[in-house]
Amino acid sequence: MGILGWIIVGLVAGGLAGRVTGYRGGGCISTMIVGIVGGLLGGALFSAAGDEGIGDFGLRSMFVAFIGATVLLLVFGALTGRGRRRRRW
Question: Is 86 among the domain residues?
Fold first, then answer.
């Protein structure tokens, strides 16, 4: 997958992971970085589990990156105390 593919996968995976975890990032660049690092983490996790990591551009690669980005944001939130906050009505 080329650099443009990584950017697209990073934006989509980072955006979806941010929505699921409730993380409020800084913008497009930070969302893309979270998605790309999440893709690397997800690829390592899937490879460690005996499956194929990120391959060609496609839905499977986005899924692997989404899983990695979600794990990354959950760990980041647990370490920094920036987890999901409850709304008070």
Answer: no
